[in-house]
Amino acid sequence: MRKITFGLLVSFILAMPTSAALAVDDASVTSVSVTPSSVELSATEVTHTLLVTTSDEVSKLSCYIFTGSSSNPGGILFEGPTVDVSSSDMELSPMEAALFDGSEGDGEVVGFIYNFGSSLSVGDHNIVMSGLTNPDADGTYRIGCTSYTGELKDADYTYSDTFDIGEGAAASSISALTWTVDPAIIGAVADYELTITVDSEIASGSQIYTFFLSEGDSDPSASEIDLSSAVFSSDTVVGDFTAKESTNYASGSVELTEALAAGEHTLTLSGVQNAPSAKSLTAEATTDPSDESTYVFSEQIDFVALSAPAKKNMEVVKKKKKQVTLDWSVATGAETYTVQVKKCKNDLKKKCTKAKHYQAKKKYRKFTGVTKSKKVVKKLQVGTYYQWRVKSCLTEECSDFTTWKRFMTKN
Which residues form the signal peptide (predicted)? Predict the structure, then answer.
């Protein structure tokens, strides 16, 4: 990776033109956009990503950070920037370049010049300026770029929209977050789907941080969410997901390997192990976890305990003299089921309507680890009353049993 450091530029370059005859490619920069569009006072290690569009081939390109009106390039103090050439999609070989600062008005100017050994092609070009330190006073700024063949002082500039540097300005361009979890069952293995709204492009190499907080934000139960086996996927978010270890919340980050455009983006974390005790969770997202003002919160989602199958859907779907097939509805989040069957002690004389008519618990027939919502029970007595019940299980956690339901085998 090649880094270009400061070099002082002679003062005449900083003088803006009042009138000048333009060289052939002076008007070839047709648009300039900047990410982020709003940044925090005195923030350090700030990165500006420029998208510069050219309409013709150019031999030189220069960009400045300007304050206030376009005719005054002073009034801004940025310290210690570098230009990351490897993050640009320009043809850079051979090339001479300089990154500079210089005094003008009541502050300093930061910018760079590219002198191309061969012409820069027509189209969109990404440039990353990193390592900037923002000023400690409010202001409105813009970035202007120009292409030129003669002297820089005779060139014309194309400007980006203005961006603010001020107290409380969001360093994160994420403005909204919604999420769902399926299933929202305590202790279940689930898929977490997050939709984030991005106001301005997030540069490649940036990270999107996600956090999951339990009710009260201090309950350590949220930290029991296991993201380590989660599989990250998205149609538009391209990057590498890493689970983070923390004390009282679950978190992870996606390092973008491609810039993320403004708009809505959905990302999915599949195979997340829900916490065994968290009753509700809130998700949050940011691109700058060190700045609490950039955090965006979702609505809270309430998790529920695993429930037993509905009794109304418990049926005997096949009945023979010594065999029946018991069937029930699938319980959300259940991995297995446990079925119990008990026989009437003397069903020829009684209708077996009361609990005392049936066998004691130690004589129940028990079927554990049933993976389907049905069970064939064999070796029953002909023409005999039985009762059965079922419960849902998830790993080592199980719901309560349903109430008993009666059936009779064929005579």
Answer: 1-23
